[in-house]
Fold:
Amino acid sequence: MIRAILIHPDPRLKKPCDPVAEVTSEITELARDMLETMYDAPGIGLAAPQVGAMKRVIVMDCIKDAPPEPMVLLNPQVIWSSEDQSTYDEGCLSIPDQYAEVKRPASVKVRWMDLDGATQERQFDGLWATCVQHEIDHLDGKLFIDYLGPLKRQMITRKMEKLKRERARA
Ligand code: NI
Structure:
């Protein structure tokens, strides 16, 4: 089932999420819906608070023009970051059509729980590294615009407020 994506500003996008204690049918269903919602948008990553579920769950697929590689990460944690940084023009499904350059570690090692309840660990590089850090930020109530200067951030926030008013009237 495709779920509605919250648009910034929304208090649920600013709140830290709760850890997943065990893989219940509710969590499995949430992950499945999030993947469907992400592919439909379309996007390369989605975090549970973006669909209003305050749980530490993210989904990603950064493969383009190749067989899909859907990933579901429960309680993801960065356990190592490279000193090397890279800059990407980031966007967010909760901040449609707005992009800005954000600098982050170029590679990160992440530990998470999979849908079988097993611990996984993997190093992410390139776009995957940016994406996983962006999505983990969501679980802590942080958006990519929080890395920008206050003026740029306010400008984007005002555009989103206007977009929400227009959508509410439509
Ligand atoms: Ni996002």
